[in-house]
Write a structure and sequence with these properties.
Length: 336
């Protein structure tokens, strides 16, 4: 990426966006950062960001304001979380189409050079994800359309909007379909966390409280692939700098069941094998999902390098440290 470009990051207070900003700043670019959350609630803070905006991008006037004088736009914004959130907040998730639509309009008006949209594997047809350990989903498997209700439809619709703005107005767009991104500086409790962070938290808590059982949503046999966040950022920037405008998977093809991931985290934590309280009434999503990486290897010459165990080790240590700090703060507050 050229160093003299001004880059707008929308959803800058989020998990992936925070890591993306770090990398773009290292390249010497100027950053304009925008998120609906007040700045004190952003996952990461940066001293050398030129402009911060805490504003609602569902309002097109705000989109027009923050895109003025900008060269590149990364739309990382959406209302989302793990399965517990997206299955119970479909209307909230769908409203993110306003962010993307208004940003595209403002980008066209302000002559943005290139526009990135962060899509999701939730855009894929659910009928192709009904078994465990399925073959990797290829980009064309999104059609005929039958994505996850709410969040998945929002992503697929927004992908189409990007495509049509390229076709009708010549706006250069790049679209990544992320497959379960995880790592440090993310959500690990509160209801929006994804499986790797949630399971790390549960196993850390069980170890500290000397418990022998953890709760597991579903039967633990559902399968997924997970990509470490640093790998995600590298793939994202390679895609952004490429000449490829169709949706591309950014993910791992190391598919594991939830039970297998629990075993990996138990090994990382040196914890004895825990009993599992399977909660069959909890949201669990599709039965199996995996990323086919043929296209991304072909068009970007990119593939992930970090194994799931190595990525989970880094994530576990960060969550363990965060929980220790939170516990220490609570104890100090109680004593005072």
């Amino acid at each position: 990426m050229d160093k003299n470009k001004k880059v707008l990051i929308v959803g800058a207070g989020g998990f992936i966006a925070g890591h993306l900003i770090t990398k773009i700043l290292e390249n010497g670019n100027k950053i304009v950062a925008c998120d609906i959350k007040p700045k004190e609630f952003w996952f990461q803070d940066f001293d050398n960001v030129e402009n911060y905006y805490s504003t609602d991008m569902k309002d097109i006037s705000n989109c027009r304001k923050v895109t003025e004088g900008v060269n590149y736009v990364f739309n990382m914004a959406c209302n989302m979380g793990g399965m517990g959130f997206i299955e119970n907040n479909k209307a909230e998730c769908m409203q993110s189409v306003l962010i993307n639509t208004n940003l595209l309009i403002a980008s066209k008006e302000n002559k943005i050079e290139r526009y990135f949209f962060s899509s999701s594997a939730c855009a894929y047809n659910q009928t192709k994800q009904q078994d465990v350990f399925i073959k990797g989903l290829k980009e064309e498997d999104a059609y005929p359309a039958n994505p996850e209700d709410g969040y998945g439809w929002e992503k697929l619709f927004s992908e189409r909007m990007c495509r049509h703005f390229k076709e009708d107005y010549g706006l250069e767009v790049r679209i990544a379909r992320y497959h379960n991104i995880y790592g440090p500086y993310g959500t690990y409790d509160g209801g929006r966390e994804k499986a790797p962070a949630a399971l790390c938290r549960k196993i850390i808590s069980a170890k500290r409280e000397n418990k022998d059982t953890i709760d597991v949503w579903g039967d633990g046999e559902q399968t997924r692939t997970f990509l470490y966040v640093d790998e995600c950022v590298e793939g994202t920037l390679r895609l952004f700098e490429s000449n490829f405008s169709d949706p591309v998977n950014i993910g791992s093809d190391e598919q594991v069941s939830i039970n297998q991931m629990i075993n990996i985290i138990e090994d990382i934590s040196s914890t004895k094998t825990l009993k599992k309280n399977y909660q069959l009434d909890k949201p669990k999503g599709v039965r199996g999902r995996s990323s086919n990486n043929d296209l991304v290897k072909k068009v970007l010459n990119w593939s992930y390098k970090m194994t799931l165990k190595d990525g989970l080790s880094k994530t576990y240590k960060w969550i363990e440290n965060e929980m220790s700090q939170k516990s220490s703060n609570i104890n100090r507050f109680t004593k005072s």
